Backbone:
């Protein structure tokens, strides 16, 4: 029996995920990419993970960065997500950025920004699993998240 990769992808799409942008580089030359394979790992120590396709032309840029930020996108960030999900330069030109203590900017209007130090990169089939230790963070107490479900964007209602 052959494994139907397309159907498998559709089955995974039944699980709604949040959408983030991972940023590396300096305040002067940051790069960013859309990531929906993001999860918390541990509260003590504070750790998160995200995954990246090993075939990406930016693979070494992101997996070798000692510091990175994760910006959790809100429902108004669909165009930002689309822009940074496509192959290309992945520069953040024209986007409002916030300064961070680790020197890697986050998105200024993100629901949350997590400043991380690289802990490990693990092989995970055709993806790398990047684990980061959260060293600083800030978040908004309001706003609805951007979500991805069955190949489409959506949003959850914000608590009133």
Residues:
């Amino acid at each position: 029996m052959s494994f139907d990769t397309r159907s498998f992808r559709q089955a995974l799409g039944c699980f709604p995920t949040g959408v983030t942008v991972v940023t590396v580089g300096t305040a002067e030359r940051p790069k960013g990419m859309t990531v929906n394979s993001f999860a918390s790992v541990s509260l003590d120590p504070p750790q998160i993970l995200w995954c990246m396709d090993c075939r990406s032309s930016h693979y070494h840029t992101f997996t070798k960065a000692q510091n990175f930020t994760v910006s959790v996108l809100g429902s108004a960030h669909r165009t930002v997500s689309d822009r940074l999900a496509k192959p290309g330069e992945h520069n953040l030109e024209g986007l409002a950025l916030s300064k961070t203590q680790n020197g890697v900017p986050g998105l200024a209007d993100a629901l949350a920004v997590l400043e991380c130090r690289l802990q490990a990169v693990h092989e995970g089939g055709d993806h790398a699993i990047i684990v980061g230790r959260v060293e600083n963070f800030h978040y908004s107490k309001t706003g609805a998240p951007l979500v991805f479900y069955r190949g489409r964007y959506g949003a959850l209602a914000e608590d009133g």
In short: The two ends are 50 Å apart (CA to CA). Residues 111 and 141 are 8 Å apart (CA to CA).
